[in-house]
Amino acid sequence: MSVPVALRPDYSAGRLRQLARQSKDAPQTRRLLTLAVIYEGGSRTQAAEIGGVSLQTVRDWVLHFNAHGPDGLLDGKAPGQPSILKDEHRQRLSEMIERGPIPAVHGVVRWRLADLMQWLWEEYRIRISKQTLSRELRALNFRKLSARPRHREKSEAAVAVFKKTSPRVWRKSRQTRPGKPLEIWFADEARIGQKNKITRRWARRGTRPSAPRDLRTASAYIFGAICPAQGKGAGLVLPRCTTEAMTLHLAEISQAVAPSAHAVLLLDQAGWHVSRKLKVPPNITLVPLPAKAPELNPVENIWQFMRENWISNRVFTSYTDILDHCCAAWTKLTDQPWTIMSIGLREWAHQ
């Protein structure tokens, strides 16, 4: 007859019952209460009856508990079947997705799961289902995302040079104004009108949700500027984009700049931004961004955030209604400095 295995001495019946009350795992709770009976002096047979198991199972629980404590009474995760893909396959998949398909070679302009399944078969003779391949790609941190538009004439070299040299120029400009802190601002304009956007929304799978849409043409423009480092903004809602409107916006930004600071305002090369008739306040220096590179301006992301959360999926009854909603949306944004910081901070500009 085998000798019962003694329970570890650093626990007691009261301690195990307390752990059982705190546990959210039902099997672990049952095992803790079973072992508590043994700590109280009960026999292994009584413990097996309370736990609804055999004596051998109680012995196994005791061994696991002695070796790993209460965590040893948790159910282990089944190992499951080994993965079809190896590390080499995952690395090649990542490289293929990062590079993207060559239409003339692969016959597609974007990768689908079916295309990647075909590639795995042709390259490694591996058969894999769509569901398994989808899980593998998600484990590699890939998601199906909307592509950001890129101008066909954009110069990547000009963008790289701008990111590298601009902060150096700003530091030099700070030296010409000793004692004045420098604020980095970004500015842009967004047209908001009755021909409104329809954004994505949560809905049951297999359905297509509807949203109101208007075909009338009344519209206004939000002139918006943000200082991501300070989490502040300055904006106006105006009827059109002109040099006079931009002059009003610069005056509004000038008032938002700290009294003892000087602002560097980054903006695109629209005609009303570079006009010689533009009146620039003395506490602002305009810095034009490289042509055809809107991704350098975080205000573009501000517009996207505002449209998706506050402006889209609406019908504006009148021009006044447009003005009211634009003003309310911009006020809501400036009341959330953490949102401006989260969306607007750029490492190349605020290093």
Describe the protein in words.
With 351 residues, the protein is of the alpha/beta class. 47% of the residues lie in helices and 11% in strands. The chain has helices spanning 13-22, 26-39, 44-51, 55-68, 87-99, 103-106, 113-124, 130-139, 156-176, 243-256, 271-274, 299-311, 319-334, 337-344, 347-350; strands at 182-193, 219-227, 232-238, 262-267, 284-288. It has a 5-stranded mixed beta sheet with strand order 3-2-1-4-5, with helices on both faces. The radius of gyration is 32 Å and the shape is elongated. The N and C termini lie far apart (74 Å). The mean pLDDT is 88.
Structure keywords:
351 residues; alpha/beta; five-stranded mixed β-sheet; 15 helices; 5 strands
What structural class results from the helix and strand content? alpha/beta
Count of runs of 4 or more consecutive helical residues: 15
Helix content: 40-55%
Number of strands: 5
The biggest beta sheet is recorded as: 5 strands, mixed
Question: Could you give the distance between the termini?
Answer: 74 Å
Q: What is the strand content?
A: 5-15%
Q: What are the secondary-structure elements, in order, as H or E?
A: HHHHHHHHHEEEHEHEHHHH
Radius of gyration, in angstroms, nearest whole number = 32 Å
| Uncertain ranges | none
In which order are the strands of the major sheet placed?
3-2-1-4-5
* Oligomeric assembly: single chain
**Mean of all residue-level pLDDT scores:** 88
Q: Assign an overall shape.
A: elongated
In a nutshell, what does this entry contain?
By secondary structure, the chain is α/β, with parallel strands linked by helices. Helix content is 47%, strand content 11%.
